[in-house]
């Protein structure tokens, strides 16, 4: 007869196998990984290597095409994940039921049953500009732990870094006064990505998000206007576009209105009559189609005191073109081209095991051995270049600042979580410190990343040892 505990465990196990709804909660994160992480961990246990201290670094070998820099983001989610790193009895049973681990040593299951992250994390603060081959973070932990967390770390860092970088470029192109709103939920790569995209955009300088869940979780008020559907539905059933606007304002007085469903200029004139007569207040209008530069100038002449927002698959280059053509636009709603595009192809590589530096030598994928630090040379507020060095090196240039900080010690965070506002300020300062050729939208040039003499020597020595 099964004990009560065994029955509860079996129920949880059956729920995992029978649940066909592909949604993810934080309790699922231990299984949200690639199979080879667990098979390698089992092998480490069998070989008696699981407890050896390993160092892995996460970095991008190259930046996405057309990017002169990247903005590090996602560290907060990494730390949350590591703090909650667990395997439930039901999850362990589910793994055993696959039959894949039939040959795994029994101590492998004991490790999973008592799993906790006990290592250290060094990382570049969120909102910091980084370049190719520079580690965004380093995990120093028992080998089996450092291995198992790889997939989630890459997922969290790669996507949010992509969104933060795009958001920073959009803010740079639009200027500090423009309102930038994140509208990307319907184009993001899944529900979790939508929430992360909203967070990364806000942390990189956006003013708001239309994603209600993300806004509320992040302590913000969600933002938005209306869609063409409301205008068309109410106009068809109640008589006119004017009545559609009036209907919406009955429940949301003064709210911004989308005015390009039919005739943009005619809609602006109709609204101007109502605003000028004192019949309505209007906090803004949105343009989503047509020649935005021309239309915005016409609308500004008709509604001179009303903010104009633009949307419609815009990106940093389109915003730059609109500004150079004299468009009268006060803010932008950004979606598709913010939350999608070429990925930040971050990788997670072993650099040291049990005090022994290691490196990958595969063609086109060479890595540098040893635990590393980034030293940034700043002069008169501008980044002149970086030096990638060994973590224990003494870089003599007095203006060089080490970027990687200890954020987790023995499995526990060493500082309170940062606010989005603080991260956004760091993002703005990071972008402002870049030279114009690095910030330019076309053919940007990244600063030079020097490899220290000691790191070069260690690289040659490690190669010879293979």
Describe the structure.
Helix 3 packs antiparallel against helix 7 (about 150-175). The strands form four sheets. The chain has a seven-stranded antiparallel sheet. The N and C termini lie far apart (about 55 Å). Helix 12 (about 265-275) links the parallel strand 8 (about 255-260) and strand 9 (about 285). With about 475 residues, it is α/β, with parallel strands linked by helices. It has 18 helices and 19 strands.
Mean pLDDT over the full residue set: 93
State the end-to-end distance: 57 Å
- How many beta-strand segments? 19
Helix content: 40-55%
How many strands, what sense, and barrel or not for the largest sheet? Answer: 7 strands, antiparallel
Task: Give the overall shape.
Answer: globular
| Alpha-beta content class | alpha/beta
Number of helices: 18
Unreliable runs, pLDDT <50, ≥5 residues?
1-10
Strand residues, percent: 15-25%
Layout of helices and strands:
Layout (H helix, E strand, L loop, with lengths): L3 H15 L16 H12 L6 E8 L9 E2 L3 H9 L5 H9 L8 H8 L6 E4 L5 E2 L6 E6 H6 L1 H25 L4 E4 L8 H13 L4 E2 L2 H6 L10 H11 L2 H11 L5 E2 L5 H13 L8 E3 L4 H11 L5 E3 L5 H9 L6 E4 L1 H4 L6 E8 L2 E2 L14 E8 L2 E9 L9 E3 L2 E5 L2 E2 L6 H13 L3 H4 L9 E3 L1 H13 L1
Parallel strand pairs: 6-7, 6-11, 8-9, 9-10, 10-11, 15-19
Antiparallel strand pairs: 1-5, 1-12, 2-4, 3-5, 3-17, 12-13, 14-15, 14-16, 17-18
Any key phrases for this structure?
globular; six-stranded parallel beta sheet; 466 residues; 18 helices; alpha/beta; seven-stranded antiparallel beta sheet; 41% helix
């Amino acid at each position: 007869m099964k004990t009560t505990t065994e029955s509860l465990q079996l129920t949880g196990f059956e729920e995992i196998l029978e649940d066909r709804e592909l949604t993810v909660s934080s309790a699922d994160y231990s299984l949200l990984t690639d199979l080879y992480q667990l098979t390698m961990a089992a092998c480490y246990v069998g070989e008696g290597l699981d407890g050896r201290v390993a160092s892995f670094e996460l970095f991008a070998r190259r930046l996405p095409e057309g990017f002169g820099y990247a903005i590090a983001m996602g560290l907060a989610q990494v730390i949350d994940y590591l703090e909650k790193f667990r395997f439930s009895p039901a999850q362990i049973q589910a793994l055993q039921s696959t039959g894949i681990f039939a040959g795994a040593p029994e101590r492998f299951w004991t490790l999973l049953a008592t799993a906790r992250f006990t290592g250290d994390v060094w990382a570049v603060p969120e909102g910091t500009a980084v370049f190719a081959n520079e580690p965004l973070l380093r995990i120093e932990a028992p080998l089996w732990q450092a291995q198992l967390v790889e997939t989630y770390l890459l997922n969290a860092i790669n996507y949010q870094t992509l969104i933060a970088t795009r958001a920073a470029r959009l803010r740079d192109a639009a200027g500090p006064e423009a309102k930038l709103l994140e509208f990307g939920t319907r184009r993001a790569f899944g529900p979790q990505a939508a929430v992360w995209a909203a967070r990364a955009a806000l942390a990189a300088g956006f003013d708001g998000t239309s994603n209600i869940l993300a806004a509320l979780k992040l302590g913000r008020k969600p933002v938005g206007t209306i869609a063409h559907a409301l205008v068309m539905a109410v106009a068809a059933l109640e008589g006119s576009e004017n009545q559609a606007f009036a209907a919406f304002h009955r429940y949301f007085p003064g709210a911004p209105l989308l005015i390009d469903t039919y005739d943009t200029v005619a809609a602006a004139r109709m609204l101007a009559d109502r605003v000028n007569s004192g019949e309505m207040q209007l906090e803004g209008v949105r343009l989503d189609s047509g020649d935005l530069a021309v239309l915005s100038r016409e609308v500004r002449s008709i509604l001179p005191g009303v903010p104009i927002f633009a949307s419609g698959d815009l990106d940093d280059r389109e915003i730059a073109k609109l500004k150079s053509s004299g468009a009268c636009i006060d803010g932008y709603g950004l979606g598709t081209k913010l939350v999608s595009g070429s990925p930040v192809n971050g990788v997670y590589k072993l650099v040291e095991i049990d005090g022994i530096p290691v490196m990958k030598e595969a063609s086109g994928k060479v890595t540098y051995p040893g635990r590393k630090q980034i030293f940034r040379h700043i002069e008169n507020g501008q980044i002149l270049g970086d030096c990638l060095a060994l973590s224990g090196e003494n870089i003599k240039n007095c203006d060089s600042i080490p970027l990687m900080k200890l954020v987790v010690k023995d499995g526990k965070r060493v500082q309170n979580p940062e606010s989005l506002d603080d991260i956004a300020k760091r993002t703005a300062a990071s972008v402002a410190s870049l030279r114009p050729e690095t910030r330019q939208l076309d053919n940007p040039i990244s600063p030079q990343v020097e490899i220290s003499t000691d790191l070069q020597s260690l690289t040659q020595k490690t190669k010879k040892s293979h």
